[in-house]
Amino acid sequence: MSNITKPKEVILSRWYFGGLASAGAACCTHPLDLIKVHFQTASTNITAGQRPTMMSTTVRIVKTEGLLALYNGLTASLLRQLTYSTTRFGIYEVAKQQISPDGSPIPLYQRIFLAGISGAAGGLVGTPADMINVRMQNDIKMPAKDRRNYRNAIDGLIKVYRNEGAMTLFNGASMATSRAIMMSIGQLSMYDQFKYLLLKYFPSIFEDNVTTHLSASTLTGAVATSLTQPLDVLKTRMMNSAKNQYRSVGHCITELYKESGIFGFFKGYVPAFIRLAPHTILTFVFLEQLRLNFGVHMFVEDKKH
Question: Which residue ranges contain the repeat Solcar (predicted)?
Answer without folding.
Answer: 9-98, 110-197, 208-293
